[in-house]
Specification:
Elements (H helix, E strand, L loop, with lengths): L5 H16 L2 H10 L4 E2 H8 L3 H13 L3 E6 L2 E6 L2 H17 L1 H11 L10 H10 L2 E5 L3 H6 L1 E2 L3 E2 L17 E5 L7 H11 L3 E4 L4 H6 L4 E2 L2
Parallel strand pairs: 4-6, 4-7, 7-8
Antiparallel strand pairs: 1-3, 2-3, 5-9
Helix pairs in contact: 3-4, 5-6
C-alpha cells in the first residue's frame, strides 16, 4: 500500500482524531468547551494548566478538526466544531468506563457513593418542566451558565449553594445538573440539598447531552 493512497490518508485521518483524544488534558478541554466557547486564558484557569500548554493542546485538537477558533478583539476564542465531537468524547469516556476496571474504580472514587441518587433522565426532566413544579438548578460556574444553560434553569454555582439555600422553596423538587455524566458538582449539590431536607436529584448527563438531543437551551 503506497503512502499517500486514499486508504492511507483515510485511516491516517481516523488515527489523527484518535491521537487527539489520547491525552487527559485535551479530553478535559473538550469537556470545558462543550459548555460554551472560551478564550485560552479562561480554559487554562479552569483546567489548571499553563497557558502555553493549553494553547499547544488546543492546536492539536484544531488540527484534528475537533475545535475551531475565532478572533474577538485581541483574544482567540475556541469552540467545539460540532455536536458530534461532544458525542465522540462522551462515547470514549463511556467505553473506558465500561471496559477498564481501573477507570471504573477511579470514577467511583471521584464521584463518591451514587447509590440512591436516582438520576432523572433528560426526557423525564423535559416532561416535569412542561408540567411545572420542578426547579432546575445549574451548579456550574456563572460563566458557563451565561454561555449556555437549560432553558428555565436557575444559576446557583456549587460553591455558593450553602449560602443560598434559603432562596429555594422547601416544597420544590430540585434537579441539579452540571457538565456531564462524570461531573461531580451536581452530585455534591444533591447530597447537600438532601442533608438539608430538600427533595433533590441529579440529571442523567449534563448540558452537552441535553443540547445534543435538541432540548431547549438559552444563554444569559
Amino acid at each position: 500500500m503506497e503512502d499517500g493512497s486514499p486508504k492511507v490518508v483515510l485511516y491516517g485521518g481516523f488515527a489523527q482524531v484518535g491521537r487527539a483524544l489520547g491525552n487527559p488534558a485535551r479530553i478535559e478541554l473538550l469537556d470545558l468547551l462543550a459548555q460554551g466557547e472560551r478564550g485560552v486564558e479562561e480554559l487554562a484557569a479552569a483546567a489548571r494548566l499553563k497557558v502555553s500548554n493549553t494553547s499547544a493542546q488546543l492546536k492539536v485538537l484544531a488540527a484534528a478538526g475537533l475545535v475551531t477558533s475565532r478572533r474577538s478583539g485581541a483574544r482567540v476564542v475556541y469552540r467545539i466544531s460540532g455536536p458530534r465531537v461532544t458525542v465522540l468524547a462522551e462515547l470514549a469516556k463511556q467505553v473506558a468506563f465500561e471496559q477498564l476496571p481501573g477507570v471504573r474504580d477511579a470514577a467511583r472514587g471521584w464521584l463518591g457513593d451514587t447509590a440512591g441518587m436516582e438520576p432523572v433522565t433528560r426526557a423525564e426532566l423535559g416532561r416535569r418542566m412542561r408540567a411545572g413544579g420542578v426547579l432546575v438548578m445549574d451548579v456550574r460556574p456563572v460563566t458557563e451558565y451565561a454561555a449556555a444553560h437549560i432553558a428555565g434553569a436557575v444559576s446557583i454555582p456549587l460553591d455558593e449553594l450553602p449560602a443560598r439555600l434559603a432562596e429555594l422553596p422547601r416544597t420544590a423538587e430540585v434537579v441539579a445538573y452540571c457538565r456531564g455524566r462524570f461531573c461531580v458538582m451536581s452530585l455534591e449539590a444533591v447530597r447537600l440539598l438532601r442533608e438539608h431536607g430538600y427533595r433533590a436529584w441529579p440529571l442523567d448527563g449534563g448540558l452537552p447531552e441535553w443540547r445534543d438531543e435538541g432540548m431547549p437551551v438559552a444563554a444569559a
